[in-house]
Design a protein that fits this description.
Strand order of the largest sheet: 5-13-6-7-10-9-12
CATH superfamily of the largest domain: Cyclophilin-like
Number of helices: 5
CATH class of the largest domain: Mainly Beta
Shape: elongated
Order of helices and strands: EEHEEHEHHEEEEEEEEH
Radius of gyration: 19 Å
CATH topology of the largest domain: Cyclophilin
Helix content: 10-25%
Strand content: 25-35%
Structural class: alpha+beta
Number of strands: 13
CATH architecture of the largest domain: Beta Barrel
Distance between the termini: 47 Å
């Protein structure tokens, strides 16, 4: 761990703990998040975790930048991950099909694996939720095995259906709402990933883990899934 504090704005500091993305970072990120929240207490406006950083947005009327830096330094002295700190494990049903996952064939070609094997490998792994962003409830997860890694599309789609599951490099994610997007789509989940009535809004939070479970078309529909083909959505 290489601690650095960088200025983001007058009332924001970026705490950088690591330089490389790795699943092993998460226990340290969670421990740092808990410690910083306790240290800033009521003077904390927001704390935004990412793969390797934590952005600390604090009340500038209560703390000077120097005081904020002091709190960060004190909070992270002798930082140690808590083995008991673990997020929720979510199982997301996914209907893997070319009509809703048009890049299944592309990933098959790039990896040299059969489409069924691409599906099996994607769904047999448990993924770490690293960060939320891009859209409300959009969870960046990883790491997919290298054989399934694929670059984003050269031209992003103007509209991606809610629930679409995709891969970009070694990340995987599910789109919580209809939005533009350039990830390689491989299926669709009926899970409600963003809900204004839910505490925290997002189904998933950094530190949680996710496993995708392949389901049949009938199961997908019974769970409330929308099977409108991607190309038919306007």
């Amino acid at each position: 761990m290489k601690l650095r504090v960088e200025v983001v704005a007058l009332d924001c500091l970026m705490v950088r703990l690591f330089d490389e993305i790795a699943e092993a970072n998460m226990p340290w990120m969670l421990a740092a998040s808990e410690s910083l929240r306790a240290a800033f207490a009521g003077h904390l406006i927001d704390l935004v975790p990412s793969y390797t950083t934590l952005m600390v947005h604090y009340d500038l009327t209560a703390l000077s930048p120097a005081q904020a830096r002091e709190l960060i330094a004190e909070a992270l002295i002798d930082l140690s991950p808590n083995a008991c700190t673990r997020g929720k494990c979510h199982v997301l049903p996914v209907w893997y099909d070319l009509s809703v996952g048009p890049e299944l064939n592309l990933l098959s070609q790039l990896s040299g694996l059969a489409v069924d094997e691409v599906i099996r490998r994607h769904s047999e792994r448990e993924y770490q939720v690293f960060a939320l962003g891009f859209a409300p409830g959009f969870a960046f997860m990883g790491l997919v095995e290298e054989a399934l890694a694929a670059p984003r599309l050269n031209t992003p789609r103007k509209k991606v259906a809610a629930g679409s599951v995709g891969i970009a490099e070694r990340q995987t994610a599910a789109y919580p709402v209809v939005s533009p997007g350039g990830w390689n789509l491989i299926g669709r989940t009926p899970a409600k990933l963003f809900d204004r009535e839910r505490d925290g809004y997002s189904l998933m939070q950094p530190g949680d883990t996710v496993r995708f479970e392949a389901v049949s078309h009938a199961e997908f529909i019974n769970l409330g899934g929308d099977d409108t083909p991607l190309e038919a959505q306007v």
